[in-house]
Predict the structure.
Amino acid sequence: MFYLLVVLLMTTAGYSQTAEDYFNSGETKQEKGEYNGAIADYTKAVNINKKYSEAYNSRGIAKLNIKDYNGAIADFSMAVKINKKYSEAYNNRGFAKLQMKDYNGAITDFTYAIEVAPGLAEAYANRGFAKIKSGQNESGCLDLKKAAQFGYENVNDAIKEYCK
């Protein structure tokens, strides 16, 4: 009886999922557009590893996709609390704030993302859009052009439209 219990415990322990397993499952679900399932898996990952900044960031992205901007901001904030140099999480939090029309908050986050990672073209583009939305066209156009210099092609139409 004791031997059977030991074997049962050993096989059960061998099948327990790690935070990375849940994270990877969440990534797969997110790629398929299964955002709620991805959020559930990322939540399991952070419940196992409270300092898993990538899981908080990815869960925030999934929340962005379902338009839960406050939840996304909370997750991105947790990611940057864990890793102060996480430029993508600052950029993502800025994007969520941009969706909520918090242009000053968004600009602040995009600026910090750029300070941490000066070559992050997407942060220049996003900051440019936030500045234009807040009435700072000239400065916004400089950011859009900087993003284009870094090869971020998604800004070319905006440059034509706003930067005449």
Summary: The chain has a mean pLDDT of 93. The domain at 19-84 is CATH 1.25.40.10 (Serine Threonine Protein Phosphatase 5, Tetratricopeptide repeat). The radius of gyration is 20 Å.
